Automatic annotation (TrEMBL):
It comes from Lampropedia hyalina DSM 16112. The keyword Hydrolase does not apply. Substrate binds at S75, D162, N174. It catalyses: L-glutamate + ATP = L-glutamyl 5-phosphate + ADP. The lineage of its organism: Bacteria, Pseudomonadati, Pseudomonadota, Betaproteobacteria, Burkholderiales. Pathway: Amino-acid biosynthesis; L-proline biosynthesis; L-glutamate 5-semialdehyde from L-glutamate: step 1/2. One of its GO terms (biological process) is L-proline biosynthetic process. PANTHER family: GLUTAMATE 5-KINASE, ISOPENTENYL PHOSPHATE KINASE. This is Glutamate 5-kinase. It is an enzyme of class 2 (transferase). Residues 303-386 form the PUA domain. Keywords: Amino-acid biosynthesis, ATP-binding, Cytoplasm, Kinase, Nucleotide-binding, Proline biosynthesis, Transferase. Its main location: cytoplasm. GO terms for cellular component: cytosol. It comes from the Bacteria.
Length: 394
C-alpha cells in the first residue's frame, strides 16, 4: 500500500525510526497460529520452510548485512494437535486444549528443527509461561539460556508451556509472550507476522475503508480503539494483543513491526527498511534509556555491594559489567535476581542492577576472578555479578 493511502499517525516519531529497524541486531520473530497452520490445517510445511530460509539469511548475514541474532516465538501447537487427534473444532475444555497442545508441539518443533537444519541453523525448544517472566530468578535463568543459545547462532523456538497455564491457553497469548521475550533479551526489534499486511485503522475483514497504519508510536492509546479481535477461527488474540505487545516491547526499547507472514521475502525486506512494508510501532525510548527507567521504576533495592576504584571506572567510564574481582564488600540480604545498589568505597552509590548471585555467594566471590566462581560456589550462573544490560548508572 502506498503511503498516500496509508494512515499516518507518525507525528513526533523519532526521525531515525526505520534506521533502528535496519540496524537491529537482536530480533524476536513471532509467528501466529493463523499463519503456521494454514488456517487450521495442521503445520504448514512450506511456510515454515520459507521462514527458516529467510531466517538463515539473517543469522548468516547473507542479506548483505551484519549477522543478526534471531529468536522465534511460534504458535500452532493446538492447531497441529487438533489435526493429529482428529478434532474438527477447537476444544472448549481446558484439559483437552492442553492435551492437543502437548501432542501438536511435537510436530511443530520437529518441523522447525528439520527446516532450520536444512538451512544450516541449529535450533532449540524453549517452553515458557508468563509467570516464569515474573519470577526474577527464572527470568534470569531463561535470559542466560537464551543468550547462550544466541551466542552459538542457534535459533531458539519458543512457545507457551501450555500444559501448566490456564488463561494464556484460553485466550492465546503468544503476542504477549513474544513481547516478554523481547524485554528479557533486550531485543532491538519485535516482528509479529500475521495474516494481514499490517495494522489497520479498523479490522480490514469488517471495514472495507480501513487503511494501513505505516508508522505510529508504540503505546499510543488511540491504536487500542482501532484494534479488533481475531479474524479467523484459529487465531486467538487478534490485533489488540499485538498492540499491547508492542507497548510492552517498547518498555525495553524494542520497536515492533506487524506484517503479513506470506509476503515474499518478508523478513529481509522488512529489515532493509526501504519499502515500509508492514506497520512500524516505534518505541519512544531507546534501549538503554528504557532499561534505565525500568530498573529505576519497578524494582525495590535489596542490598548493596561495595566496589573498588578500578571497578567504579569500568562501570562509569567504559560501560562494563560488574565482575566479582572488583567487589570488596557486601551489605544486607538479597537473592539472585534482586536489584542491588552498587557503591564506591566512600559509600557513594554509583549504579543499580540485578544481582546474579545472592548475598552469601557474593561474599565468597569478593576479590576473585570470574574463573574461580566454579571452585568457590560449585557452579557458575554467570561470569558477572551484575551484567551491564541489567545495570544502570545513578
Ligand atoms: N485494526 C486491525 N488491523 C488488522 N487486523 C485486525 C485489526 N483488528 C482486528 N484484526 C484482525 O486480527 C487478525 C489477526 O489476529 P489473529 O487472528 O489473532 O492472528 P495470529 O494468529 O497471527 O495471532 C486479522 O486477521 C484481522 O481480522
Ligand atoms: N500456545 C498456543 C498459542 C496460541 C496463540 O497465542 O495463538 P496466536 O494468537 O494465533 O499466536 C499454540 O501453540 O497453539
Amino acid at each position: 500500500m502506498s503511503s498516500s493511502s496509508s494512515a499516518s499517525l507518525s507525528a513526533l516519531l523519532p526521525s531515525d525510526a526505520w534506521e533502528v529497524v535496519r540496524q537491529a541486531r537482536r530480533i524476536v520473530v513471532k509467528v501466529g497460529s493463523s499463519l503456521v497452520t494454514n488456517n487450521g490445517q495442521g503445520v504448514d510445511e512450506q511456510a515454515i520452510d520459507e521462514w527458516c530460509r529467510q531466517l538463515s539469511r539473517l543469522v548468516h548475514g547473507d542479506d548483505g548485512n551484519e549477522k543478526r541474532e534471531v529468536i522465534v516465538v511460534s504458535s500452532g501447537a493446538i492447531a497441529e494437535g487438533m489435526k493429529r487427534l482428529g478434532m474438527s473444532q477447537r476444544p472448549r475444555e481446558l484439559h483437552e486444549l492442553q492435551a492437543a497442545a502437548a501432542v501438536g508441539q511435537m510436530g511443530l518443533v520437529q518441523m522447525y528443527e528439520t527446516k532450520l537444519r536444512k538451512y544450516a541453523l541449529g535450533s532449540a525448544q524453549v517452553l515458557l509461561t508468563h509467570a516464569d517472566m515474573a519470577d526474577r530468578e527464572r527470568y534470569l535463568n531463561a535470559r542466560v539460556t537464551l543468550l547462550t543459545l544466541l551466542k552459538q547462532a542457534i535459533v531458539p523456538v519458543i512457545n507457551e508451556n501450555d500444559t501448566v497455564v490456564n488463561d494464556e491457553i484460553r485466550f492465546g497469548d503468544n503476542d504477549t509472550l513474544a513481547a516478554l521475550v523481547a524485554n528479557l533479551v533486550v531485543a532491538d526489534l519485535l516482528i509479529i507476522l500475521t495474516d494481514q499486511p499490517g495494522f489497520y485503522t479498523a479490522d480490514p475483514r469488517k471495514d472495507p475503508h480501513a487503511q494501513k497504519v505505516e508508522t505510529a508510536r508504540a503505546g499510543d492509546p488511540s491504536l487500542e480503539q482501532m484494534a479488533g479481535g481475531a479474524g479467523s477461527a484459529v487465531g486467538t488474540g487478534g490485533m489488540l494483543t499485538k498492540i499491547l505487545a508492542a507497548r510492552r516491547a517498547a518498555r525495553s526499547g524494542a520497536s515492533t513491526l506487524i506484517a503479513w507472514g506470506r509476503e515474499p521475502d518478508v523478513l529481509p525486506r522488512l529489515l532493509l527498511g526501504q519499502e515500509h512494508i508492514g506497520s512500524l510501532l516505534v518505541a519512544p525510548l531507546h534501549k538503554l534509556q528504557a532499561r534505565k527507567q525500568w530498573i529505576a521504576d519497578h524494582l525495590q533495592v535489596h542490598g548493596a555491594v561495595v566496589i573498588d576504584a578500578g571497578a567504579v571506572l569500568k562501570l562509569t567510564q567504559e560501560g562494563k559489567s560488574l565482575l566479582p574481582i572488583g567487589m570488596v564488600a557486601v551489605k544486607g540480604r538479597f537473592s539472585r535476581g534482586d536489584v542491588i545498589s552498587i557503591q564506591a568505597e566512600n559509600g557513594r552509590e554509583v549504579a543499580r542492577g540485578l544481582a546474579n548471585y545472592n548475598q552469601k555467594e557474593a561474599r565468597l566471590l569478593c576479590r576473585h576472578a570470574s574463573t574461580d566462581i566454579e571452585t568457590l560456589l560449585g557452579y557458575v550462573a554467570e561470569n558477572e555479578m551484575v551484567h551491564r544490560d541489567n545495570l544502570v548508572l545513578v
